[in-house]
Amino acid sequence: MLTRICAGGVVFLDDQVMLLRSDKGEWVLPKGVVRSNEIALDVALHRVKYEGGVEAHIISPAGETSYEFYSYSRKMPVCNKIDWFIMEAKNREVFVNKEEGFADGGFFSIDEALTKVTYSQDKSLIRLAYKKYNHYRKGDLSATVG
Fold first, then answer.
1. Contact by Cβ (8 Å): 108, 20
2. CB 104 within 8 A of CB 30
3. Residue 146's pLDDT band (boundaries 50, 70, 90)?
4. Assigned CATH for 2-140
5. Model confidence at 13: pLDDT above 80
6. For the chain, where are the alpha helices, taking DSSP H only?
7. Average pLDDT over residues 113-118
8. How many separate helices (H) and strands (E) can be counted in the chain?
9. What are the backbone angles phi and psi of residue 51, rounded to the nearest 5°?
10. Domain ranges, ordered by start, for the chain
11. Are the beta carbons of 63 and 133 closer than 8 angstroms?
């Protein structure tokens, strides 16, 4: 099995979180593969900007998830291990990268995002990240990065 290390962002602005809808109809969070000589934190920021056109800064690590799938192009199973970061957007503008396979996206209330998001791991991640993000917003900086 091929294992890929990835990084992504759970991007908040006020009481909303950013989601992207793939051309397969799946509502997901932005993420990408961490290549050699790259840092997960930088990859996460880049993917948020590249996939959703959103400028953001990192507040805190959010945790990690993993999932497996069969890659027909590689003809083998693949495991994606994703390091997630809680981020805050600088504004509400989302510019979906359709060339990267995304059809739609935007900021949604937490409740709406939890009904839209396709994968249960992402639902749990959003819930936990939102709790941490609210601590940050209330001035509890003990959970922040840099």
1. no
2. no
3. very low
4. 3.90.79.10
5. yes
6. 40-52, 110-116, 120-137
7. 97
8. 3, 7
9. -85, -35
10. 2-140
11. no
